């Protein structure tokens, strides 16, 4: 028997036609009340799933988004999102049974965050997939597809791409800031990932940003919401404001005078849902003629279509996802995936004289020092759920060594204050840290940040910068602690737990082994310990550039991409985007092109062979970068255009194929137009960027070949 397609839009229009104006307006706020006479239950739209079901009790906690980005693995991201959606459904249906319709209990998740992490000072950068538009787009599409499921009729959960658009700090000014951006930067850097979320992943929702972009508040922008999102991209899903962003229109942006004018600006430009309560002013706005009731009807219809696609108005037996049992939440299978994700996210930044991996049979004692060594906060980042158990780095080392090696531990210092105990003298844990180092054969130092000092305005204790970082240095006494322990003379393995790049230039000069651990999730400590003792080979890559100093960064408030990220920076990175070491060595064979000369509009197919010539089985992340040699306008020096992750045993070889489409070869001109020009294109394939710093750090030259595109310039669809 064939299943007839469900016309949700017609059903939603019919339902909305039965509502009073007041009932319709009430449905446009995030905590929508019930309409019993129409069979509409109350619903709270606000839910989060950045790296696991968040703020709703027990759930699997995966590595923070920036850590997931470091895996460069879209298949893994899809699998993680599938698990999140399983747990979301399991928790939702149990909440429904107990008539719990509260905040964080719904199926509309305001994730992922696909803003470009253009400046390492931005406190919310760890919510993103990094600084590159291509990587961000690939991972975001995978995440959304994993969340929303593959049922032809129903959504498993409804994802939401945020914050649209041109949004990445400063946090302290986000309610009033105007981000000026050129058409070129807008189309080349800030919009591509959002477009892929809409066009390819069919994301259910989009959230506007707090700030203005080129003078227009993002949640009421005719350019962003009407012209681009609804018009050019044909987005038919729902648009929500960021939380309490609408009142900023008249209170901070000063583009309107009154609350009714603000809500009218938002709704008339396509914003359907208000995270906040400003939309209750729509009754006044409608009465004053600022908004037509037909516009409100359209908005509420889009909201009801979303709820219908989630199966909220149908018999549960019709909706395949309602059968997911509560026991799927926080199960052992999901915990193992969290561990795998954490392992794949870790980036080995330095390994002088092959200090790592350690042989636990050759160690009698090990010191574990630092404010993040035994910190749960350093595992979870922000927008997190509650794990049923956590493994810190100290606990992970204890598990691996199983009591066979003496472990000495000291907190060493507070994360950012000058003392641990309030009544103590400054540096009250330094002497203990020195003693620990003296009594140990080798030291693991766990430094960095946590979400209490880098994060969202209002969520952090970092009042002086509202969640942003004023500089890239280790905070508090951490740098001094590191240098003090170094003076003891024992080998040090530095583990950085942070959601963003730190300027660890002194450590790069003096510390033999450095691991970037991000906020690695509930199993993070086990993953770090397993890496240190060689239970697997590291394979993560940096999704952001690590700069040498704060001083080389452009003005934080400048949204031009000039001298920003690997694509436009002119200085040499400390650790470049795409960089990461392994415990083995890979050899790349010559790139073979199906055709070295093609016509404008044709694809380029690249083949390359890779072999594990070392002694350890390992994943390798193969990266393809493209450079337009003869571009008529300034463009990135090269751009990531392909990624593949492959696992190879020692001596094993595989051939991989990459497809370069005309859109990948096209440039964005100063007017924001997408132009494919004829000329020479350099193609680089290897385990890193083709920059000199990466090749010096890895000791491997990236392969290069040239393709020629002939014909006349053509304008492509953006």
Describe this structure in words.
The protein is of the alpha/beta class and 718 residues long. Among the domains are: 332-541, Rossmann fold (3-Layer(aba) Sandwich), CATH 3.40.50.1700; 586-716, Immunoglobulin-like, CATH 2.60.40.10. Helices cover 28% and strands 17% of the residues. The protein contains 22 helices and 26 strands. Strands 9-14-13-12-10-11 form a 6-stranded mixed β-sheet, sandwiched between helices. Strands 17-25-24-19-20 form a 5-stranded mixed β-sheet, with no helix packed on it. α5 (133-148) runs parallel beside α7 (192-199), α13 crosses α19 and α15 packs across α19 (524-532). The longest helix has 24 residues, at 74-97. The relative contact order is 0.12. The mean pLDDT is 97.
Task: List its salient traits.
718 residues, alpha/beta, Rossmann fold, Immunoglobulin-like, 6-stranded mixed sheet, 5-stranded mixed sheet, 26 strands
Task: Reconstruct the topology from this structure.
Elements: H1 8-17, H2 21-26, E1 31-32, E2 43-44, H3 65-69, H4 74-97, H5 133-148, E3 160-164, E4 178-179, H6 183-190, H7 192-199, E5 205-208, E6 212-213, E7 216-217, H8 222-232, E8 238-240, H9 248-251, H10 259-268, H11 282-287, H12 293-309, H13 332-345, E9 347-351, E10 365-369, H14 377-380, H15 393-401, E11 406-410, H16 430-438, E12 442-448, H17 478-486, E13 492-497, H18 505-510, E14 513-516, H19 524-532, H20 565-568, E15 586-588, E16 592-593, E17 597-599, E18 604-612, E19 618-628, E20 639-648, E21 653-660, H21 662-665, E22 667-668, E23 674-676, E24 679-686, H22 692-698, E25 703-710, E26 714-716
Parallel strand pairs: 3-5, 4-6, 5-8, 10-11, 10-12, 12-13, 13-14, 17-25
Antiparallel strand pairs: 1-2, 6-7, 9-14, 15-18, 16-18, 18-21, 19-20, 19-24, 22-23, 23-26, 24-25
């Amino acid at each position: 028997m064939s299943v007839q397609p469900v016309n949700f839009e017609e059903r939603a229009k019919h339902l909305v036609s039965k509502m009073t104006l007041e009932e319709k307006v009430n449905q446009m706020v995030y905590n929508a009340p019930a309409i019993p006479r129409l069979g509409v239950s109350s619903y709270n739209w606000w839910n989060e799933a950045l790296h696991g079901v968040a703020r709703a009790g027990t759930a699997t906690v995966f590595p923070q988004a920036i850590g997931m980005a470091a895996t460069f693995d879209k298949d893994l991201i899809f699998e993680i999102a599938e698990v999140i959606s399983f747990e979301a459904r399991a928790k939702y249906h149990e909440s429904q049974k107990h008539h719990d319709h509260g905040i964080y209990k719904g199926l509309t998740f305001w994730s992922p965050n696909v803003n470009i992490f253009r400046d390492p000072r931005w406190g919310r950068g760890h919510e993103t997939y990094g600084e590159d538009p291509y990587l961000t787009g690939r991972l975001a599409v995978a995440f959304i597809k994993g969340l929303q499921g593959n049922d032809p009729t129903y959504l498993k959960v409804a994802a939401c791409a945020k914050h649209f658009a041109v949004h990445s700090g400063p946090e302290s000014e986000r309610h009033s800031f105007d981000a000026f951006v050129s058409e070129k930067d807008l189309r080349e850097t800030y919009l591509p990932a959002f477009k892929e979320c809409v066009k390819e992943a069919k994301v259910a929702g989009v959230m506007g940003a707090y700030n203005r972009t080129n003078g227009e508040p993002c949640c009421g922008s005719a350019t962003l919401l009407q012209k681009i999102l609804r018009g050019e991209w044909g987005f038919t899903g729902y648009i929500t404001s960021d939380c309490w962003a609408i009142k900023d229109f008249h209170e901070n942006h000063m583009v309107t005078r009154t609350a009714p004018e603000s809500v009218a600006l938002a709704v008339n430009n396509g914003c359907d849902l208000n995270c906040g309560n400003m939309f209750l002013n729509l009754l006044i706005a409608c009465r004053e003629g600022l908004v037509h009731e037909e516009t409100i009807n359209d908005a509420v219809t889009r909201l009801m279509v979303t709820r219908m696609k989630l199966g909220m108005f149908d018999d549960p037996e019709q909706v395949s996802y309602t059968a997911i049992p509560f026991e799927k939440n926080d199960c052992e299978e999901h915990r193992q995936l969290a561990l795998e994700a954490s392992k794949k996210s870790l980036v080995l930044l330095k390994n002088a004289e092959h200090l790592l991996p350690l042989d636990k049979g050759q160690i009698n004692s090990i010191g574990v020092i630092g404010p993040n060594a035994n910190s749960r906060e350093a595992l979870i980042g922000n927008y997190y759920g509650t794990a049923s158990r956590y493994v810190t780095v100290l606990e992970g080392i204890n598990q691996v060594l199983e009591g066979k090696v003496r472990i000495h531990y000291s907190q060493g210092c507070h994360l950012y204050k000058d003392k641990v105990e309030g009544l103590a003298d400054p540096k009250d844990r330094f002497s203990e840290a020195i003693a620990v180092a003296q009594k140990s054969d080798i030291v693991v130092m766990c430094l960095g940040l946590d979400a209490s000092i880098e994060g969202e305005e209002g969520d952090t204790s970092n009042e002086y910068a509202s969640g942003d970082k004023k500089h890239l240095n280790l905070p508090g006494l951490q740098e001094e602690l590191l240098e003090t322990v170094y003076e003891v003379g024992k080998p040090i393995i530095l583990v950085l737990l942070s959601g963003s790049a730190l300027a660890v230039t002194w450590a790069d000069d003096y510390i033999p082994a450095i691991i970037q651990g991000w906020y690695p999730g509930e199993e993070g400590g086990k993953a770090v310990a397993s890496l240190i003792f060689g239970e697997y080979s590291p394979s993560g890559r940096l999704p952001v550039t690590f700069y040498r100093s704060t001083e080389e960064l452009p003005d934080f408030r400048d949204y031009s991409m000039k001298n920003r990220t690997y694509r436009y920076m002119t200085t040499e990175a400390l650790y470049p985007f795409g960089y990461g070491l392994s415990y083995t060595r890979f050899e790349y064979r010559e790139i073979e092109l199906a055709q070295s000369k093609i016509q404008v509009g044709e694809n380029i197919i690249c083949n390359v062979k890779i072999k594990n010539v070392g002694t350890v089985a390992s994943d390798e992340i193969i990266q393809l970068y493209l450079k337009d040699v003869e571009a008529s306008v300034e463009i990135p020096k090269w751009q990531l255009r392909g990624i593949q992750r492959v696992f190879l045993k020692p001596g094993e070889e595989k051939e991989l194929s990459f497809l370069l489409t005309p859109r990948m070869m096209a440039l964005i001109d100063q007017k924001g137009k997408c132009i494919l020009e004829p000329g020479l294109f350099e193609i680089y394939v290897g385990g890193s960027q083709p920059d000199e710093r990466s090749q010096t750090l890895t000791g491997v030259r990236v392969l290069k070949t040239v393709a020629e595109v002939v014909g006349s310039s053509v304008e492509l669809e953006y």
